[in-house]
Amino acid sequence: MLQTTIVETLSQLPESLQEEVLHYAEFLADRYQKSTPSVAINRRGGLGAWKGKIKMSEDFDAPLDDECDRPFIS
User: Fold this and answer.
1) What tens digit of pLDDT does each residue of 10-41 get?
2) Contact 10, 18 (CB under 8 A)
3) Which end of the chain has fewer CB atoms surrounding its CB within 10 Å, N or C?
4) Which residues contact 21 (CB under 8 A, 6 or more apart)?
């Protein structure tokens, strides 16, 4: 359906503009081929991406010292 619409619209243009559309389509095809890597990209993130990479101290949930409870005043 889309290709038919493109061809119909293109046929209504003058030949000089049809050539420009052809050059642009070739440019887009070349650009698409260059931007599509043939090797899979290692993506960052996702669930469990940091599993085993972060260590937490055993007393993480322990109460803080009295010094830490005071608000910071400069």
Assistant:
1) 999 999 999 999 999 999 999 888 876 666 66
2) yes
3) C
4) 10, 13
Tokens 């243009």 belong to: 13
pTM score: 0.44
Quote the CA–CA distance of 32 and 18 in Å, as a whole number. 21
Per-domain residue ranges of the chain: 1-34
Phi first, then psi, for residue 14 (nearest 5°) are -65, 160
49 phi and psi angles, rounded to 5 deg: -65, -30
Backbone torsion region of residue 36, taken as left when φ is above 0, otherwise alpha when ψ lies between -120 and 50, otherwise beta: beta
